[in-house]
Structure formats: structure tokens, C-alpha cells
Design a protein that fits this description.
- This protein has 207 residues and is mostly beta strands.
- The protein folds into two domains: 10-37 and 114-198, Barwin-like endoglucanases, CATH 2.40.40; 40-110, no CATH class.
- Helix content is 3%, strand content 30%.
- It contains one helix and ten strands; from the N terminus they run E-E-E-E-E-E-E-E-E-H-E.
- The chain has one helix spanning 167-173, and strands at 10-15, 18-22, 27-36, 59-60, 63-64, 118-121, 136-142, 148-156, 164-166, 184-198.
- The strands form two sheets. Strands 1, 2, 3, 6, 7, 8, 9 and 10 form an eight-stranded mixed sheet that branches.
- It is globular and about 50 Å long.
Length: 207
């Protein structure tokens, strides 16, 4: 195993009592890990028993945020995957990172949480540094077991929450990966973002 020391630099901000550091190249913080199922093909369904997450976590009629709608607005009607999509009958779930070649009702437009390693950023971190954060490379390390996952910053979460990643990221790091009851509340995941450095096959998405 290769040990990497990341220079912390100055304190950029504090979220949930966790200090976020900026070295001029690296943004880093040590936090919990909640599981973000958004973007997953099997994440949301009318029947919670067959879904990876509870539909209530995606919103409710008139105010959807975790499922795509026909109008692209929160008060639209949820979009179901078609017979030609990966998981027919499940809802299309969006992520902030989008493959814009696909329609907003196509699940392939978004990052599949089960197969793509990504972290989630609070929105203000996209504004606090010059280089682009969404789509940039991220390194996540479980400080308890030494496991490391490399991926991209792929989604944007609440401004008052820090420490969240995809199902695929949790599995690599040895963290329980269910959006319903997985994750860890222990501050043992070191997140190191490299704003402005894109991941092959992906694009940087300016705020």
C-alpha cells in the first residue's frame, strides 16, 4: 500500500463541525459517509421492498428532487424507466453530473450509483475555489482499514451536510452500502478532491 500525505493548507470552511481544507491544489476533509443512491437504476420504485432506497427520500408529489420528472421541475410527474431502459418500472433518478448527450428522461444521462465511484459535495464548495469541483477527481480513503477508492465528484447535496458517496464507492471502501441503512457515522473517511483535474471519460462541470 502506498501512503500519500496530502498537505492540508488553510481552513476553507466548516460544515457539520468538520473543517474543510484548501491547499491551493487539494481540498480535503475527514468525515462520515452517508450513501447516495441517486442516479442508480434500481434506487427508487413505487414498491420500497424492491428498491435500494425509500421513495420518501426522493421527495413527494409536487416536490420531487431524487427522481426525474417529465417537466424537469420538482412539481412534474416522475419518469418511469421504459422497457428499453436498464430497469423497466423503476424511476429515473438524476445526479448533478449529467451526460448531456442523453435526454433528461433517460437514466443513462446520470451516474449509476451502483457502478460509478463518486462523492457528493455541498453546493458552496463549488463556489469557494476557482478550479471546477463537479466532475473533478476525488480520492476517498477509509482510515480504519486503509482501503482507497478513486472516482469523481458526481453529485451535489444539502449545504449543511458533509460526507456522502455512491454505493460503488462504499463497496470499495468496505462500508455498508445500502442507501436505506448503510454508511458510517464515524468520521473515518478522508476525502481529497482535486478541483480542475478531470477524470478520463468525464467532463468538468462549472458551477
Amino acid at each position: 500500500m502506498i501512503n500519500i500525505t496530502i498537505p492540508q493548507g488553510e481552513i476553507l470552511t466548516e460544515i457539520e463541525g468538520v473543517e474543510v481544507y484548501w491547499s491551493g491544489i487539494f481540498m480535503s476533509y475527514t468525515a462520515k459517509m452517508s450513501i447516495d443512491g441517486d442516479g442508480g437504476y434500481r434506487t427508487y420504485h413505487e414498491n420500497d421492498d424492491v428498491a435500494l432506497d425509500y421513495l420518501a427520500n426522493a421527495g413527494y408529489p409536487g416536490n420531487w428532487w431524487g427522481v426525474a420528472t417529465d417537466t424537469g421541475e420538482g412539481d412534474g410527474d416522475p419518469v418511469y424507466q421504459k422497457s428499453s431502459d436498464p430497469c423497466p418500472g423503476y424511476f429515473v433518478s438524476p445526479t448533478a453530473y449529467e451526460h448531456t448527450d442523453y435526454a433528461h428522461t433517460d437514466p443513462r444521462r446520470y451516474l449509476d450509483s451502483e457502478s460509478v465511484i463518486f462523492s457528493v459535495t455541498p453546493p458552496q464548495l463549488r463556489q469557494l475555489v476557482g478550479p471546477v469541483v463537479l466532475g473533478c477527481r476525488v480520492r476517498m480513503e477509509n482510515l480504519e482499514n486503509g482501503l482507497v477508492a478513486w472516482g469523481l465528484v458526481g453529485d451535489v447535496g444539502p449545504k449543511d451536510k458533509l460526507g456522502e458517496a455512491s454505493i460503488a464507492a462504499a463497496e470499495v471502501l468496505g462500508i455498508p452500502s445500502s442507501p436505506k441503512n448503510g454508511g458510517t457515522s464515524e468520521r473515518k473517511i478522508l476525502y481529497t478532491l482535486i478541483p480542475g483535474l478531470k477524470v478520463p471519460g468525464y467532463e468538468l462541470k462549472p458551477a
